[in-house]
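Re: export button greyed out
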Amino acid sequence: MRFLRNELREPGELELLARIRRRAAGVSAAGLRLGIGDDCALLQPRRGEQLAVTTDLSVAGRHFRLDWHPPEAVGHRTLARGLSDLAAMGAKPLAAFLSLGLPRELTRRSGRGQPWIDRFLDGFLALAESYKAPLAGGDLAESPVAAADIVLIGAVPRGRALLRSGARPGDTLYVTGSLGGAAAGLAQLAQLAATSPAASRSASPSALRIPAKLAPRLASHLYPQPRVAQGQWLMKRKLATAALDVSDGLSTDLAHLCEESGVAAEVDAAALPVHHAATLAQALHGGEDYELLFAAPQTTRLPRTIAGVAVTPIGRFVRRRKGRPLVALATAQGFQPLNPGGWEHFS
Amino acid sequence: MRFLRNELREPGELELLARIRRRAAGVSAAGLRLGIGDDCALLQPRRGEQLAVTTDLSVAGRHFRLDWHPPEAVGHRTLARGLSDLAAMGAKPLAAFLSLGLPRELTRRSGRGQPWIDRFLDGFLALAESYKAPLAGGDLAESPVAAADIVLIGAVPRGRALLRSGARPGDTLYVTGSLGGAAAGLAQLAQLAATSPAASRSASPSALRIPAKLAPRLASHLYPQPRVAQGQWLMKRKLATAALDVSDGLSTDLAHLCEESGVAAEVDAAALPVHHAATLAQALHGGEDYELLFAAPQTTRLPRTIAGVAVTPIGRFVRRRKGRPLVALATAQGFQPLNPGGWEHFS
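Workaround output, generated via the alternate export path:
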């Protein structure tokens, strides 16, 4: 619990820390007994609840680019990554913790406009409020490279978490929402950066201006919505035998699900809910859509939408056989192996 | 839960991830239901328990130096920072989570010897085993600057956590162990680096050789012992009205305690348990000793040692008065203000 470290004792920064503490206090917090300000935060789980815990590290130049991504989007995406892991377990958010390593200039006002960190917090806290995930603590340190580590703690009734390991041969494979939108949005952002002389010459924070008419086409990439309500819906009704979130791309994440469950999978190319702006390759291999991928017995009847988001059957789980691929893609031309080819970030 | 990200898919690194998972499984884990390998870890608190959560970010060049600190010490110190926060609340460790951002060369074998990350884990996991704090998850990402974010989750009976906010005027101020040893050890390390031509010319990992005869004098800095047993002892007996750990130095941390409790404090210089290798200034302002600083009513009788570690009364809490310092140092010459002058790291 180090939002008050002495290494950030300059007047402007003490004020920043007080501001974080004040702003964090604005987010509703049912299970939080003690937030920022002591050695630890204190959480009160309810009887019969287990706690789901996940951490995700985002590094500038790898998971985001200071010269491409608006600070609000970096804040939103940082928290969305963690919330999506909770969603994949069917857990309800209890509290978030954020460790930020930042170059000093990102904590200071530069010319017109707010400091980078304030805009980062705008995006972070807006999403935190939407999903009732109060910022309960964290750490702040100076670092030559911007990095954000997000910790999410959620609650799930004992023994009811959606695991990766429960898919059985014969189960149907489902996905929420659509796939490839985030990859298509990123491609659009890269194109914008390439044709924007100011941005291409500068690695300075948020140098890239995003025209308003392009914003909707970038939203899947910049402001993904974790499927927290959908995960809890599935958990409560015991309908899914296994689940995970599509963070590294369908081909990669489905392979993880198969490995942990000890099964193989077949995906029907024609059934995939490809995002309207995306290609089939982006839907198969693009990352950061943060949709849920899950298994349910063939006999289970699922609605077409869960909490307002489409649910689509896209294939099935089968027995693993020697010489057969772990994940296969079924097209009009027959089967072909679908090898992991997910997200390569910005490296 | 991302120790299996696709960005680390090279054969050597997949093998590294499998090794972390295997080695982490070796640490005892009473409250851990599901560890590395799914979207989240699952913890099972016991009835009536609250959870204490803390995160601490360590950045190369600021909290440690790759060219000074043996990787084992970086691993040990990373975990010790988090454990010490639990100790300060009187909480028992349940699980640790570790996010590592590392330059690629630190994950690879270079010439003779193990990769840096393996030696880091040696130090980390040895301490984790000592304190029954299983590594339950985390994240691993490539980063141009080495950084480690540690998350500790502990359990404490409801309403019994030691807070910073309970000290009252008249309470006695205590500290465990001795003060200044870590600062003295760091000064010794800096001197060694300055007189070691190989190290001073190179910023390469662990270039500095530490002669065996110097090791004991560096131990307080390189391998601090968090006071987990002492914190739990105080919590169980309801003897402390407030507590925190000395991470930023007595002068800084005591000011935090006073601020959160709304009191002032007087420290008796002659009573301070100054580490045998340290100066008074190092004991007053040096950081990273990870001793516990706590308050107890004047009428409380405490033993001289708790779980094998000395406990020393070093002053008292008094009412805040206008024009009087928040923290004062009492010497033979009278009172003087003791202003926060703690740890400045390596900047």
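Chain B touches chain A through 80 residues (CB under 8 Å). The button fix ships in the next patch.
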